[in-house]
Amino acid sequence: MLAEARRSVGQLKASDALEPAKEALQIFRSIDDQAGAAQALRPLLAAQLERADLRPDEALKCVKEEAGKIKRSAKDGRRTEALMQLAQAEVHLAKAEAVKALQMAKEAEIFFQRDEDWPALADVLLEVVAPAQLLRGDGKKALDAANLVLDVAQKVKDPEVEGRALGLLSSSRFASKLEDGPEAAKKALSIFRTLGSRIREAATLLDLARGYLGTQESSAALDAAREAMAAARSAGSWSQVGLATQAVVEAQLQAGNPQAALTEAEEQLTLLSQGSPDNCRQKGITSAMSAVVVATSALRGVDEGLEAVKRFVEKLRAGGNTQGEVCMLHKLATMSPFPDYSLNTAQVALAMAQKAGFPHEEKALKKTLTDLYVAQGKIDKAPNRREALLLLQDLGRELEKKDGDKFDDANKNLDGYWNALTQNDIDATMQKIVSRDPPAYLAFLKAHGANSEVPGEKKATEMQGAGLQGKLGQLKTGPLEHLYFGFRASGIAYGPRYRCCVLPTAVGGEVMGTVGVLQLQDLSDDWERELQYNPSILDCSLQAGAATSYYSTNP
Fold it and tell me: What is the pLDDT of residues 387-400, one digit of tens each?
């Protein structure tokens, strides 16, 4: 029964795992098998979360209570503890808490590797470590985890584990901007087709389509998205059909075909709306509606897209699709030209997401609300501010210890939170530490990607008065991640409207040359967008040149 439950979860059919996982859990408890009970709890929670029988917070409370009952003195006590750590890590990941998931999974990973428990190690890497690193945007560490699980797959001799590892390897390579992402995905597809796993095939094709979209290969992305849609439809995986619809629309728009994008999106929405409204189909409908909104806005303008969103909100509310309503309200908040209306709408959507237990929607809404509050000069009200301050303290602690790996991790964790911090926040944390030994700390910062140009003779007191100089944070692997931190650290605190740099990158073979890809932020008002010479774009074109100084000294 445990094997059946685990197989259902592995094939992305978590709801089918509910009954066998329940029965397995009862039997393991009756014979006092702690490790067996811990293993059965994982697919049971996955099924309950998938079916929305349990909120993520409730699932986490349940795991912690079960972990508290472990008899560590028993023969299987340490292994059970590691399995419970894995269960907690999976729930944290379901809550979109990638950092906490990785922290919880670390000890379990070490234990299983030391114990040579390869199937359990594969679970840690597949279910938590690699996906969590991708969620935090760290393609390199996700790539390391995917390569490790590929080695483990050869030990367990499980083709499904190998296929999933190859799929993660492909996603990680795309995230790391490597060229061989499609090769791994195609190997994974071959395995899943041999196994007859249409849902896994669709998932791999979706990842492949997203990878191609990231590399601007619109034709290949369109082919992969349509294949994913066909596989998902044949498997009855309607949520994947909706996601494939979004990928098709993005590929069509990337290719310059807005009419085709809208036609396909409307067709898929009509087809999805014809079946019984179960949880899976409702997710697919929401994704298809989002695709229609994007295509409508591209073809007929933002005002038409806004009207489509309003219609969909009413339709989803009438149909009792709360998660879909939250998603559409979020779109409404980001598309409205009226700041107060956007703020109120986002607050309503956030309250709904928190009440219903939709962690990914909650996280996205907090980011939007933070942007809105920052744009209004009310940073203290930003929902991400408290977490941003805590993450900044972590960064300061790792800088103080000069722990390179942990500093890089702490720096990465701050991605997406910098706008919730002020110049004074950064000064109070970072500058205080640097001022104790400027040459040593600035050398450390430069070794970890910061291009700091501070005169060596300056005293600590002068450093405090002058602020960190130079542009901290233009990393070798991707300057954009730290570009605006660098500006903040040197005394220029750009607000959301003036963060238009999408992809500053060096020109190969050219000294002192960079290319800056710029994009107006969603917070820009309509009148700003209509300006022939937009001040945000003009300023950001100069910002992109800041990367040049780094590449000129680090060829």
Answer: 999 999 999 999 99
